[in-house]
Amino acid sequence: MTASPSDPGARQEPYDLAVVGAGSAGLAGAVTASELGLSVVLLDASAQTGGQFHRHPAPALGARRPEALHHDWSAFTDLRRRLAGSTVTHLAGHHVWSTVREGDGTWTAHAVTGADGTAGRPARIRARTLLLATGAYERQLPFPGWTLPGVVGAGGAQAMLKSGLVLPGRRVVVAGSGPLLLAVASSLAAAGARVPAVVEAAGYLRYARAPLALLANPAKAAEALSHGAALLRHRVRVRPRSAVTEVHGTDRVEAVTVTRLDADWRPVPGTGRRIACDALAVGHGLVPQIELATTLGCATRRLPDGTLGLALDDLQETSERGLWAAGETGGVGGAELARTEGELAARAVAARLLGRRADEDRIAGLRRRRDRLRAFADVMSAAHAPGPGWQDWLTDDTDVCRCEEVTAGRIREAVTELGARDARTAKLLTRAGMGWCQGRMCGTAVSCLAARGGVPEPPAERRPFAVPVRLSALAALDEEPADPHPRTS
Ligand SMILES: Cc1cc2nc3c(=O)[nH]c(=O)nc-3n(C[C@H](O)[C@H](O)[C@H](O)COP(=O)(O)OP(=O)(O)OC[C@H]3O[C@@H](n4cnc5c(N)ncnc54)[C@H](O)[C@@H]3O)c2cc1C
Questions:
Q1: Which of 107, 153, 189, 244 has the most CB atoms within 10 Å of its CB?
Q2: What mean pLDDT value characterizes the chain?
Q3: Measured in angstroms, how far is the CA atom of residue 160 from the centroid of ligand 1?
Q4: Pocket test for ligand 1, best of 80, 97, 132, 134 (most atoms within 8 A of CB)
Q5: Residues of the chain with pLDDT > 90: what percent?
Q6: In terms of Cα–Cα distance, which of 284, 373, 362 is closest to 330?
Q7: What predicted TM-score, i.e. pTM, was given to this entire model?
């Protein structure tokens, strides 16, 4: 149920379980925990459930076939039906900016409400356990012209299409690295855009290095084949081992230069070719969104593509007792893995709180599926790990931090002249990463530049505020005791 201030369902604090994130992982976790007898609150910044994968148009847009752009739509409608029939309190439009462990061992989630977090009063929700299912965000590697209007994130283009039914342009080049590019290109083409090329920096043959993980996951190969067939039908050309190394245009995108890359992602001289387009959808993989957990001190692990995910035990618990995580927070692996982990975590929470033996057969099956899908996720992550040569795409006047307008030249100067050796020092010397997005866009690039060709330290995902919060929301914390009846937008 979606709670309103008068809902009795909003008056159960402390809940047994608070789930942050209503994507595949959070939904599966919330409905499973509720079906096992726990009182559950499910918070999400978005107005709708479904997360990134199952984004869908608002009812006001009157889409006749919201499932048209989705694989696995029935998995989502099944979770949505179970949520509607459950006692879960669903707090939509709740942006959780901090989670805190109280002296009595319970957790408080602090949230601001409304579409952009500025509506109504801030909310405080208390629970005995927490499940973080906050997904991932896109990794961007800069190149000359990437800040021109008409350049959008690859996942962002998919989100525009799935939730707003709009295309970023009529002729859209899709570029970067990762399996998401194929999904995005086939959606754009199916929706009527002309896609002159999918430009993938990695080589697909790298998948062949782990034949066992491939053989164990035939459904993944089938999904890739179905995207491939859709691209063939729409005559979309896939260019592996290539990158968009420059965007051209005065007021917006008019063309891109696509260049062949060597195995380290270094441009091969003389191979640049111009392709006319009016939009570029670009992304270089996904980064787990884990600030809420790392700010609490949760341990992390380095993933094969150089990003950080949460270190989890066999039942999805983080290094902080009572705090579980599922889905992309532990490493990017897709919606089926996210659902599996969400259910596994919920069963572990229920066993702990109810003091009952868990259903061992079900748990064993979930673990096996999780391990099989995780093995594939690790192969995928390694195959698309950025090579160090991407830095050769940059010119000194390329903006790296677009919020603070810090160029590659200034960061290089901070490294070579002023002795910066890590992203944090580069940030203090140049302001790169201090703007609105708090380094989510430029963090990877700044770490790579600071490492001077060595192995970069992944940007530390420690931020006291996981989302932007107004001072008035902080001031309200002093005005009231913890609110036993969370208000919703
Ligand atoms: C932009 C983007 C587009 C994607 N598109 C596709 C696609 O088309 N196809 C595909 O196979 N995979 C796609 N993915 C990958 C996809 O995210 C996963 O495969 C799958 O959705 C993972 O499920 P999840 O539950 O872990 O995370 P998500 O589905 O991402 O769900 C996370 C949820 O947490 C919420 N959240 C995050 N932080 C907070 C906070 N602080 N407070 C409150 N709520 C919060 C978000 O609003 C979101 O609803 C995309 C990823 C991104 C980042």
A1: 244
A2: 90
A3: 14
A4: 134
A5: 68
A6: 373
A7: 0.91
Q: Which domain holds residue 84?
A: 8-137+287-358
Q: Does the beta carbon of 331 sit less than 6 angstroms from any atom of ligand 1?
A: no
Among the candidates 284, 302, 322, a domain finishes at: 284
What is the side-by-side strand order in the sheet with 279-284? 151-153, 279-284, 172-177, 197-200, 237-239
Mean pLDDT of 283-303: 94
What's the average model confidence in pLDDT over 358-378?
Answer: 94
Tokens 């800069």 correspond to 142
The alpha carbon of 79 and the centre of ligand 1 are apart by a number of angstroms equal to 16
The answer to whether 55 and 159 have CB atoms below 8 angstroms apart is: yes
The domain total for the chain is 3
Alpha carbon nearest to ligand 1 atom 6, residue: 53
Q: What is the pLDDT of residue 485?
A: 44
- Residue 224 covered by a domain: yes
Burial class (CB in 10 A: 0-12, 13-18, 19+), 208: exposed
Mutate to test the pocket of ligand 1, among 20, 48, 53 (most ligand atoms within 8 A of CB): 53
Q: What does the alpha-carbon distance between residue 466 and residue 127 come to, in Å, rounded to a whole number?
A: 19
